[in-house]
Write a structure and sequence with these properties.
The chain is an alpha/beta fold. The chain contains 9 helices and 13 strands.
């Protein structure tokens, strides 16, 4: 009988982390989860605390000495690094840069010590202002000026990607990079941290105006969380993922204003949507937006067998049902 495989998940109490935890426990993996609850929510993982295959460590991913001590006797086959700070739209760039850079370095060192395969979750934001669509894994990464703090997140993730490949080259560490596109669904953060759909759902449920940044004509692609998790799990299990970058997302494009109107219609039926446009000038740090963002997922399909299955309307209905019944942390 083969021994159970073990997975370490950072950011386990967050949106992606908690959904990945659920899936891996269903597949009989042993899971060790790390979170400091700075952005994750205890409610997301509460039901798993009594599971014999789950161990939780409350810690900051930058605290490498503490984590090495806590993990000293643990066998780790795979390390999925999800913990990160996102675009500093309302916050500061310092946390985004240092949490992402130092946290990733710490986790890479732990993966090296444990000889664990390292799965790093990057972001579609690294493609930045590149206007050649759809984005493939070989597309140029085109960012705006350093004086615009909006690019701190993408810059930190690009640095982390390079760091992963540097560890692969120097230490022969098995690494895989996943660029996630617009995940949404149960356990998503309810602020802008979680994406426009979570804010739109909240507004429609409360019958208040949905805030749209700019003119709303910017487009995105949205991936239901079950599809995102399927891509992550395939990357964990597949030998073909080692040393590779994959786009994990849905390649169906929708404008933000049409997303808002769809959310409103699903919740408030025939009522006229309430919309409030927020000018970019109101954000600090000379905010710049990305006009279009669509992934080419042919590589993930070919090497991993990945293909999103949940369409936007179906996924939003499931998400609305969850969000409507939510009790705040």
């Amino acid at each position: 009988m083969s021994q159970k495989k073990s997975v370490l998940i950072t950011g386990v109490a967050g949106f992606i982390g908690s959904n990945l935890l659920k899936r891996l426990l269903q597949e009989n993996f042993i899971v060790i989860g790390i979170d400091n609850f700075s952005q994750g929510c205890k409610r997301n993982i509460q039901e798993y605390f009594k599971d014999k295959n789950f161990t939780f460590i409350k810690a900051d991913v930058r605290n490498e000495p503490l984590l090495k001590k806590q993990l000293q006797r643990e066998k780790i086959d795979y390390l999925v690094h999800l913990a990160a700070y996102k675009i500093p739209r309302y916050g500061n760039a310092m946390d985004t840069l240092l949490v992402n850079a130092k946290g990733t370095e710490s986790m890479l060192n732990i993966a090296k010590d444990k000889n664990a395969k390292f799965i790093f979750t990057s972001t579609s934001d690294v493609y930045g202002k590149n206007d050649k669509l759809p984005f493939s894994e070989e597309s140029n990464l085109v960012l705006g000026p350093s004086t615009v703090k909006r690019w701190a997140y993408a810059s930190s993730k690009i640095f982390d990607e390079h760091l992963c490949f540097a560890f692969e080259e120097k230490y022969k560490l098995k690494i895989c990079i996943l660029r996630l596109f617009g995940s949404y669904g149960p356990n998503q953060n309810l602020t802008w941290w979680g994406g426009p759909q979570s804010v739109f759902i909240n507004a429609a449920l409360r019958n208040i105006p949905m805030e749209i940044h700019g003119n709303g004509l910017q487009t995105r692609s949205f991936t239901y969380v079950d599809d995102t998790i399927d891509g992550v799990v395939r990357a964990i299990k597949s030998r073909k993922s080692c040393g590779e970058i994959f786009n994990i997302g849905n390649n169906k494009e929708i404008s933000i204003i049409n997303l808002a109107k769809l959310v409103w219609k699903l919740i408030r039926k025939e009522e006229k949507p309430k919309i409030k446009f927020i000018p970019y000038a109101s954000f600090s740090g000379k905010y710049q937006d990305v006009r279009r963002r669509i992934p080419d997922i042919s590589k993930a399909n070919k090497l991993l067998g990945f293909m999103p299955r949940v369409d936007l309307r179906e996924g939003l209905l499931k998400t609305i049902e969850w969000q409507e019944s939510l009790v705040e942390c």
